[in-house]
Amino acid sequence: MALKHEPPTTPHHSAQEALRVLETVARSSTGVTDADLARHTRIGPERLTALLRMLRREGYVEQIADGAYVTGETLARLGSAHHREQTLREKLQHTLDRLRDSVGAAVYMSRYVDG
């Protein structure tokens, strides 16, 4: 379902722009250039560059060899029920890694089964 392109409200402006970029990238099966993204989303070049950098870093889009953008693994997992468990495991592992680094000791997760 496509979002309506209403005038953005100040607190949600960045999120609305990022969603417009993601919608545009997702509609293209062969990739979309930054020039096409700018034209379709009406986002200025500096702002678009910053958004694309953030979306690439987070894995929502990927830049392919010819410079075009395609949807990334994070976006695919977000919409896929099949990968929800994997995403949860990765988030848990990331949290455990941060905890390990902050306390300087091994951190383990176990499962308690009442029985």
Give a topology summary.
Elements: H1 13-27, H2 34-41, H3 45-57, E1 61-63, E2 69-71, H4 73-78, H5 84-103
Antiparallel strand pairs: 1-2
Outline:
Helices cover 54% and strands 5% of the residues. It has helices at 13-27, 34-41, 45-57, 73-78, 84-103; strands spanning 61-63, 69-71.
Q: Please give the largest β-sheet.
A: 2 strands, antiparallel
Fourth-level CATH superfamily of the largest domain? Winged helix-like DNA-binding domain superfamily/Winged helix DNA-binding domain
Distance between the termini: 46 Å
Main sheet: which strands, in order across? 1-2
Question: Total helix count?
Answer: 5
The CATH architecture category of the largest domain equals Orthogonal Bundle
Mean pLDDT: 84
Give the strand tally: 2
Shape: elongated
Uncertain runs: none
Structural class: mainly alpha
* CATH topology value of the largest domain: Arc Repressor Mutant, subunit A
Number of domains: 2
